[in-house]
């Protein structure tokens, strides 16, 4: 897996806001009960659910930012999007 830190070969760490601008593909699933599940496969464990598509999209965007912020604060590599 290529990460932003590995591929950039920069002498400094990218800013947190630059990671927030990366566009990650979102996978949506419809549940039998009418709920939706969203996952960003490039960010392991980044998933959420919602009662409507709008709520689910809002939730996954928040989950993406929290995932990136936590990895950044912990000094972990942040995977680049696989487009």
Automatic annotation (TrEMBL):
Taxonomic lineage: Bacteria, Bacillati, Cyanobacteriota, Cyanophyceae, Oscillatoriophycideae
InterPro entries: HicB-like, TA_system_antitoxin, TTHA1013/TTHA0281-like
UniProt protein name: HicB-like antitoxin of toxin-antitoxin system domain-containing protein
Domain HicB-like antitoxin of toxin-antitoxin system residues, every copy: 24-82
Organism for this UniProt entry: Crocosphaera watsonii WH 0003
Lineage top rank: taxon: Bacteria
Record-linked Gene3D superfamilies: 3.30.160.250
